[in-house]
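Example 3.2
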Amino acid sequence: MRLSIHEMEIPGRNHSPSPLEDVDRSPPSLSVLWVEFMKNLAMNLKRFLKSEDGPTAVEYAVMLSLIIVVCLTAVRSIGTKASSTFTSVSTQLGSSS
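Structure, written as tokens:
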């Protein structure tokens, strides 16, 4: 359940005002919003890590990083070999003319 900014529980503002009480309608301060945001983030992170989706996502991230490392190593190796081949061909063409 998501709450809008005005529906969040804010310390000191959760009581129902009486009809005669002057109601402060100003928005909550940024520090209050930041604290609520961080609490919500921590709660969602705990829920994510407790669920079985968390380990699955970590496994996929590890596999992806390994695939990237292998691809980068292969491209680097192929690039080095291709560069030496082009240099050799260039040298042979330059000396034959």
